[in-house]
Amino acid sequence: MKLTQAQLAKYMDHTMLKPEATPEMIDKTVAEARKYNTASVCINPYWVKRVHEGLAGTDINTCTVIGFPLGATSTESKVFETKQAIEDGADEVDMVINIGELKAGNDDAVVADIKAVADATHEKGKILKVIIENALLTDEEKARASKLTVKGDADFVKTSTGFSTSGAKVEDVKIMREAVGPDFKIKAAGGIHSLQEAYDMIEAGANRLGVSASVQILEEAAQQ
Questions:
Q1: Average pLDDT per run of 10 along the chain, which is 224 residues long?
Q2: Active-site positions, per UniProt (predicted)?
Q3: Catalytic pick from 78, 129, 147, 187?
Q4: Which of 126, 129, 142, 158 is catalytic?
Q5: Is 158 considered catalytic here?
Q6: 151 is catalytic
Q7: What is the dihedral of CA 103, 107, 109, 114, to 10 degrees?
Q8: pTM value surpassing 0.90
Q9: CATH annotation of 3-220
Q10: Which of 21, 134, 175, 191 maximizes the CB count within 10 A of its CB?
């Protein structure tokens, strides 16, 4: 596989989710995204307004995270957080499922949680990605969570928060792709640090990559 730097950049959600992120770090992330024209900048909800303003005049989306990183907040809290983020300028929201309910086999609760956030997101014409946190799931649970994401009317299913025991794995992306079929979108996130790893995820079926090492990878792509 070989993509141009510009093509690869549009796969990337350029990410700065560190709890210690300062305004300067956020602004640097925005400047890098503008330089390379990534798909989005993904930050915690507090920074949405700042990033949205910083991306003015570009086609780069502002992406934020909901119920992050554990997914164990109430559905009502996730919906409120989503509505506030969109009001502040978010174009995309990445929510974490209720992992405990998934593992308990309470699929209806998982779908209801996703659907409530999907409705709040789509009401404003925005995009919802659903993080299933593969590191905590069996292969059966990964497939089931992916199917429940489709059932919940989301737009993407996402591998990881990047804050658990491991991030995206090629094998997991393949499981997710098989579960959701050829057309539903997948985001691979967490632990993608090289051009080859980015290509591996895309070849396995990822449509978007959550990456903090975007600059390094895109500079590597320019040297191909």
A1: 96 98 98 98 98 98 98 98 98 98 98 98 98 98 98 98 96 98 98 97 98 97 93
A2: 94 (proton donor/acceptor), 158 (schiff-base intermediate with acetaldehyde), 187 (proton donor/acceptor)
A3: 187
A4: 158
A5: yes
A6: no
A7: 100
A8: yes
A9: 3.20.20.70
A10: 134
